[in-house]
Amino acid sequence: MVEEVKLVGAWFSPYVHRVAWVLKLKGIDYEFVEENLKDLNKKSSLLLNSNPMYKKIPVLLHHGKPIVESLFIIEYIDETWKDNPILPTDPYERAMARYWASLIDQMLLEGVRRVLSSVEGQQRQMEIKKVSDAMEIVEGMLQGKKFFGGKKIGFLDIAFGWIAIWFPAFDEVAGVQLLNPDKYPLLEHWKNKFRELHVVKDSLHPTEKLVRFLKKYRQSRL
């Protein structure tokens, strides 16, 4: 039976890219449906019908059935297509991977958004400190490892992969060096290794394109 897989997303979304990386790692053929989010009042009927509660990307459609939220989508993919497993097989390690992926999303990804949306002042410095605290946690998780998954990439590498792609643009637009290679040498080494993976390299956008997008995002929030 031919698998019918569609990924509804947008080129600039780190949440969408992490799902695309897993689909490629698994060797799953899929159709990418680009959602035009320039006008948030004109979201497609496909997105609105597939994710009526949050109306957000990404959405994975498997034989017409929608799955939402990137981390949940990754788990669904991993449980449906068994080749090249992403999540740890050990129940404890699997539970901890889920925990850290969710927590770092809250601390780091949302934290970077708040830094981009803030102006100089005490509040901005507080947000930068929170991001730095999260970066130290992530750095510590790489002690003695090539990847977060060990010798090969796993669930946390996919979950944290946006750091390797988006952080240089974040740093330029925010005017701060959040990803400092001297302060986070293990993360810097991992970043370079992750960017060299074929499934990642094929999806890279020029930093200049990300910078232009993030500048518009920042201006819209100030």
In short:
Helix content is 56%, strand content 8%. The protein is α+β, with helices and mostly antiparallel strands and 222 residues long.
For the largest beta-sheet, the strand count, sense and barrel status come to: 4 strands, mixed
Radius of gyration based on Cα positions: 17 Å
Shape: globular
User: Based on helices, strands and strand pairing, what is the structural class?
Assistant: alpha+beta
Alpha-carbon distance between the termini? 50 Å
Low-pLDDT residue intervals, each spanning 5 or more residues: none
Structure summary, number of beta strands: 4
User: What is the helix content?
Assistant: 55-70%
What are the defining features of this structure?
four-stranded mixed β-sheet; 4 strands; 9 helices; alpha+beta
What this model shows, in words?
The protein is of the alpha+beta class. 56% of the residues lie in helices and 8% in strands. It has nine helices and four strands. Strands 2-1-3-4 form a four-stranded mixed sheet. Strand 1 (5-9), helix 1 and strand 2 form a beta-alpha-beta unit.
How is the secondary structure organized here?
Elements: E1 5-9, H1 14-25, E2 31-34, H2 45-50, E3 59-62, E4 65-68, H3 70-80, H4 91-116, H5 122-140, H6 155-174, H7 185-196, H8 198-201, H9 207-221
Helix pairs in contact: 1-3, 1-6, 4-5, 4-6, 6-7, 6-9
